[in-house]
Design goal:
The protein is α/β, with parallel strands linked by helices. The chain has 14 helices and 13 strands. The protein is globular and about 70 Å long.
Length: 380
């Protein structure tokens, strides 16, 4: 076990005098490895506090870039990091907080093919995502590897936290066996979020992680903590391990990871690419050569379009049809044109394409892969 440097003894002195931590506990933190999935609203306080606490190796996986709308709550990023990879921005900030720890930045999408190889090297996995598919992927991977999953979720003014699959405790599927269908639960982009809420829930997740690493204290295992920031009230639900759970029950049916409809990147910004999609470079060529044959449909809500749309496409009119209205307004699409759907990051537009295909639309349609973010980044 690596010992503390003299400089670290001074840095962590307030921990060292705590009976709950002490010198032995601080050594445990230094020799621990934690992976934070996502570096957004939840991932920001999680990573920053774990780094300050002295967790020796901190991994961060995210394939998103920093955008202006992130800065309202994702405090690990700053204005000067706009359009840079989030993991790069986060790594720089964390190393500025604590130069004595190792930060592993993984700029890629988490999926069924890489979750197990990545997770196996870490002691604790912390879920800082905002996507149900990835939450279930994290849960299943943690069960298969025997790792604790420190969970957090936020929306509007409410949040929740728990610790799944710790010391034989309940997992996420013991609470909800299946993930909700796409579109049935609003995202932060659609429903909004109070900026301080992820900070509160993320700090709770960091607190739970530290207790697990120290092997002390009472964790949120088998408990779901729910917080209403507007009423300033906490309440708690007792969870029980389900013997019929499909992944951690006595006769599991989930024995390997598979990508589902909701699985995308940690921050929810890379779509399932099974539906039609088009790369930025390919689409730019079409705009330059066949602009008259293209119709652009922005599937964001009206208030989001006020934040701006695609730059450098002034010769093509952009039509706004929110994703939730696409089926009932499909007659507004032109079967004679190439209908390209856009949103901020490509997630909703990809789902919109899949919804239209399922509804029997026969025109030429595709989603701009990576969305407006990817388009803007291509001009840097």
């Amino acid at each position: 076990m690596a010992e503390l440097l003299l400089e670290e003894v001074s840095r962590y002195s307030r921990h060292l005098i705590l009976p709950e931590v002490g010198l032995e506990g601080q050594r445990k933190l230094k020799n621990s490895k934690v992976l934070c999935v996502g570096s957004g609203g939840l991932g920001s306080p999680i990573a920053m506090y774990l780094a300050a606490a002295g967790v020796g190796t901190l991994g961060i996986i995210d394939d998103d870039i920093v955008t202006e709308t992130n800065l309202q709550r994702q405090i690990i990023h700053s204005t000067r990091n706009l359009l840079r990879p989030k993991v790069t921005s986060a790594k720089e900030r964390i190393e500025d907080i604590n130069p004595y720890i190792e930060v592993i930045a993984i700029n890629r999408r988490l999926d069924a093919s890489n979750a197990l190889p990545i997770f196996k090297d870490y002691d604790v996995i912390v879920d800082g995502t905002d996507n149900f598919g990835i939450r279930y992927l994290i849960n299943d991977a943690c069960v298969l590897l025997g790792k604790p999953d420190v969970y957090g979720g936020v929306l509007r003014v409410e949040g929740q936290a728990s610790v799944f699959h710790y010391q034989g405790g309940a997992c996420l599927r013991c609470l909800y066996s299946e993930e909700p269908l796409p579109g049935t639960v609003p995202t932060c982009t659609e429903g909004g979020i109070l900026n301080v809420l992820p900070g509160i829930i993320g700090c709770i997740q960091a607190n739970e992680t530290i207790k697990i690493l120290l092997g002390k204290g009472e964790t949120l295992s088998n408990r779901l903590l729910m917080f209403d920031s507007w009423k300033m009230k906490f309440r708690e639900i007792t969870l029980q391990k389900d013997p019929l759970c499909p992944v951690c029950g006595t006769h599991p049916v989930i024995t390997e990871l598979k990508d589902g409809s909701g699985f995308c990147c940690a921050s929810g910004n890379s779509p399932d690419e099974s539906a039609e999609s088009i790369e930025v470079t390919e689409w730019r060529h079409l705009i330059e050569t066949e602009a008259d044959k293209i119709q652009i449909i922005d599937v964001r809500e009206e208030y989001e379009t006020a934040l701006g749309t695609l730059p450098n496409v002034e010769n093509i009119k952009v039509k706004n049809i929110p994703s939730g209205q696409i089926v009932c307004r499909k007659d507004e699409l032109s079967p004679a044109k190439f209908n390209v759907f856009i949103c901020t990051s490509g997630v909703r537009s990809q789902q919109t394409v899949k919804t239209l295909l399922a509804a029997g639309f026969e025109g030429h349609i595709a989603s701009l892969r990576g969305g407006i973010n990817a388009w803007r980044q291509s001009y840097i």
